[in-house]
Amino acid sequence: MIRDTVPAVESAMSLPRWRSLLFVPAHAPRFVETAHERGADGLILDLEDSVPQDQKCESRRQLPESVAKVGRKGKWVLVRVNRGLRALAADLDAAVMAGVDALVLPKTDSAEWVLEIANAVSELERERNLPLGRIRFLAQIETPGALQRVAAIASAHPRMVAMALGPEDFSAAVGSAPEFDLLLTPNLSVLFAARAAGLLPLGFIGSIGEFSDTHKLREVAVHARRLGFAGALAIHPTQVTIFNEAFSPSTQEIEWAQGVLAAEEDAATRGLSAFSLNGKMIDPPVVRRAHEILALASNN
Fold this sequence. Notes:
By secondary structure, the protein is of the alpha/beta class. It has 2 domains: 8-248, Alpha-Beta Barrel (TIM Barrel); 252-299, no CATH class. 49% of the residues lie in helices and 15% in strands. The chain is built from 14 helices and 10 strands. The chain has helices at residues 8-11, 29-34, 56-61, 63-70, 85-95, 111-127, 144-148, 150-154, 167-173, 180-197, 214-227, 237-246, 251-269, 284-299, and strands spanning 20-25, 42-46, 76-80, 102-105, 136-141, 160-165, 200-202, 232-234, 275-277, 280-282. The strands form 2 sheets. The chain has an 8-stranded parallel beta sheet with strand order 7-6-5-4-3-2-1-8. Helix 11 (214-227) packs across helix 12 (237-246) and helix 13 packs across helix 14. The protein is globular, with a radius of gyration of 20 Å. The N and C termini lie far apart (42 Å).
């Protein structure tokens, strides 16, 4: 297999700010029409699970119009493709176009699979005179086998930008329900692999299908951010506002970070790289976290 290459100018793009990515069934005009008003950082036009088999062809045909609609107000536009070869080929042919920022790859199970898709996308970009490498990948990890290869998947190609565990499919694959005890370890595995490869880790420890209990959802989302996740995928607009808040720094965090950086500046004048603030030791890793919090706050 020949490894696809992406110019450095494209592969070195900074990570996006994806606190919330909302799935939008590509076959449902009423959802497509209003998706850009839901407040999500990005919209995922879904060609996979939410689209009935007999409506997939029409969804692909309508994709250029759908991409233009959900991309209003500067939203990130993603397209989730199918896993089967025939459907995937048709999806890529439809989705590789100007206006699409990323593809969501369901049931990703190996680095080799990511490379095959990357090669196909590059061929289409060249044929269509699109910027080579601009379309990036969000891989969904949904089986125990894929979890064993998650580090290789994360670093498989420069197009990779984010990873997320698919809690429902993963739970079904192991014959269980999407409960905390089952999902903690696989979510942490995705988190560590993504961070090690410089990708966005997306998700939370729970079922993506639970959206009516907003109090519980807010708790698990806040917990996910404390663990290190950057955002989450949503299947209902109710989840979007909660994710946007949970994956953004609080007022207290911003004030803490500002205090740390002010104290660091004072300590630097005294030749100190570690210092005490409010009874706690502050050293370079803590200062780095303060910088990250303020950077996130400025991007909200």
